[in-house]
Amino acid sequence: MRALIADLPASRIREVADAGLGRSDVLAFWFGESDEITPVPVRDAAVTSIEAGETFYSPNLGLPELRSALAAQVSRLHAPPVPIGPERIAVTSSGVSALMLAQQALVEAGDEVVVVVPVWPNLAAQPAILGARVRRVSLRAGAGGVWSLDLDALLAAVTPATRVLIVNAPNNPTGWTMSRAEQQALLAHCRRTGTWIVADEVYERLHYPQDPPPAGSAEAARLCAPSFLDIAAPDDRLIVIHSFSKSFLMTGWRLGSLIVPEALMPHIAKLIEFNTSCAPVFVQRAGLAALAAAPEAVPALQARLRLCRDTLVDALQALPRVEVARPDGAMYAFLRIEGEPDSLALARRLVAEHGLGLAPGSAFGPEGEGWLRWCFASRQPQRLLAGVDRLARALAL
Question: What is the mean pLDDT of residues 73-94?
């Protein structure tokens, strides 16, 4: 075993989840997924595909009709300087596979990669696995638990020696969302330094502006967080990753996509062949059904998650010793508790003694130590309140 792989830390989220394995009394909010199952039309599309015998290989880059549907969605949600066609879109076996493909395409051993943290650990681990030198630039935790970007610090960290910059916004675990002005400044800077931007935008549809558009309006159907796609030219050194997992309630289906400059596409096809060959056809059919339902289904999900966010954050903010902000995006409340600096020990204790499953902040790097991540994607806001009651009892002891 390569020493680098042997030294990679195992997932601390899984470690906490394993501590509660087999216990039906645990209220689990540790994983980044909703407790809603995939909608019926999406499941039916996969069943129909399987029954039709679509169990063979598909093209490396995905079904042409799915690539076209993804291009249409991008055109509906964004206003890029030049329309993005299917020739720039590859279908992948999960968003995390898309992220790894981007790193394999760009990073060599010894390259410098800058990552905005705290972040889902895979994003920093992937370039490290390839032998890159990973530099971490942290978001700042301000008063009330609000996280923000120190743009000057990030710009100073990205130099001509920086091969890739990885940005996840809306961010897992903090909910921080990048502003259009920050994206413009960063893109202009990376053009000067020749740095590639790998933008993990899998949470772009889980965005909660202060003044949301009216339900049922065309604006509500297009609601998403600011994207680099809105401002980038076709030949910019930019790769954007999307996933069906979060906005379409399809975490277990493992279906994602990436948008790249067209010149890279033949090489991405080769990498897909050498990694997974292709995404299963029946899963892609399910993705097509999800996209067809998106104009109605996604705004409804956004509204449910906004209610869940507000329900949870309001209840948490009423507890003593708890500091938490209302996130602008994603589906997590990131909180810290006064007097509890060891997030892993606290998370394990909450599971063992109170049946409450949260993710330790240290799972997202040292910048998250002392914090806990609570996934608020739930069908029943009352379930979130039951979890808060358990936390309150734990804090009272």
Answer: 94
